[in-house]
């Protein structure tokens, strides 16, 4: 009964400033980002991380640009707007995608989920400094603690035993989480262009940067032993976890704010566990269901608008 009240209350929280369409998009984004970790794990078995990221971003850029043209929308010619494309594309896509792909070569997905849990924490703290309407309160801090605890409970405390084992790879995932936090703050603070334009421009910049890095690194795509599974993973990452997810992201950040938007990163490990159970036939344990409750409570506490007079 209590869990039901939490879910109902969380739904009402989002409705305070979000339309039903925004709530659906938020859930879809969580699902898209959740599934990306499974696809990356599959892709890096055949592809070098640089080639994997360059491939997914190139596919995403092509699809978004085609949609932009079909809507008869141009990319901006203003240098200031291209600076926004560059910052959001590099910090929100190219760099974290590469860092996560590199890290997942050796870091267990369970520990990766815990490390990525730092993203909403850093975002909320930074938002409280930058934005006057996003205050850091005891309730929010408690929510963040519940969220991190929920992630640890979800994947199992045993995942922490590997912490520090492969430090460079683990730090790369942690750095990716920080990139996402910085990008969310930047987009809310400075970006005013239409979501489709921003998604397209940022992905084009990110794809160009990764293609350049691929050339400079000497990575040779012809040396790869292609498999249908690996190619399918890259195509999925490009179409859904990059193109569609980026478009939804730029649609939601101005509408939900940095603090609420960042909570999607608490939902991602939950989605990852459910996807793992469906795709990889992994078993959902009782402690994982308890973790879901803790994460829902965390999102409720962080996103709940305080009542007047108390």
TrEMBL record:
Protein's cellular compartments: Membrane
Keywords, alphabetical: Membrane, Transmembrane, Transmembrane helix
Residues covered by the EamA domain: 24-155, 170-303
Pfam family name, one: EamA
Membrane topology listed for this record: Multi-pass membrane protein
GO annotation, cellular component aspect: membrane
Keyword Transmembrane: yes
Cross-referenced InterPro entries: AA-Vitamin_Transporters (IPR050638), EamA_dom (IPR000620), EmrE-like (IPR037185)
Domain of life: Bacteria
Residues that span the membrane, as ranges: 23-44, 50-68, 84-103, 109-131, 140-161, 167-187, 199-219, 231-252, 264-280, 286-303
Name listed for the protein in its UniProt record: S-adenosylmethionine/S-adenosylhomocysteine transporter
Species this protein is from: Roseibium album
């Amino acid at each position: 009964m209590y869990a039901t009240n939490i879910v109902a209350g969380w739904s009402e929280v989002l409705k305070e400033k979000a339309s039903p369409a925004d709530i659906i998009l938020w859930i879809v984004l969580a699902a898209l980002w959740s599934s990306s970790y499974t696809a990356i794990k599959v892709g890096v078995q055949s592809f070098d991380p640089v080639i994997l990221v360059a491939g997914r971003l190139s596919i995403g850029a092509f699809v978004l640009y085609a949609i932009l043209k079909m809507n008869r929308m141009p990319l901006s010619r203003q240098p200031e707007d291209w600076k926004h494309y560059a910052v959001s594309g590099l910090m929100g896509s190219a760099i974290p995608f590469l860092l996560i792909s590199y890290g997942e070569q050796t870091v267990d997905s369970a520990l990766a989920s815990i490390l990525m849990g730092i993203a909403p924490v850093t975002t909320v703290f930074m938002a409280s400094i930058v934005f006057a309407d996003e205050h850091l309160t005891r309730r929010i801090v408690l929510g963040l603690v519940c969220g991190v605890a929920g992630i640890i409970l979800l994947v199992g405390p045993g995942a922490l035993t590997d912490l520090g084992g492969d430090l460079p790879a683990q730090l790369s995932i942690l750095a990716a989480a920080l990139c996402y936090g910085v990008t969310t703050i930047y987009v809310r603070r400075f970006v005013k262009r239409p979501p489709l334009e921003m998604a397209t421009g940022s992905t084009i910049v990110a794809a160009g940067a990764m293609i350049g890095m691929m050339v400079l690194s000497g990575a040779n795509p012809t040396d790869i032993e292609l498999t249908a599974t690996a190619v399918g993973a890259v195509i999925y990452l490009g179409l859904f976890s990059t193109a569609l997810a980026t478009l939804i992201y730029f649609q939601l950040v101005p509408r939900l704010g940095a603090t609420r938007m960042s909570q999607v990163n608490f939902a991602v490990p939950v989605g990852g566990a459910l996807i793992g159970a469906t795709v990889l036939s992994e078993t959902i344990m009782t402690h994982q269901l308890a973790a879901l409750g803790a994460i829902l409570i965390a999102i409720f506490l962080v996103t709940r608008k305080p009542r007047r007079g108390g």
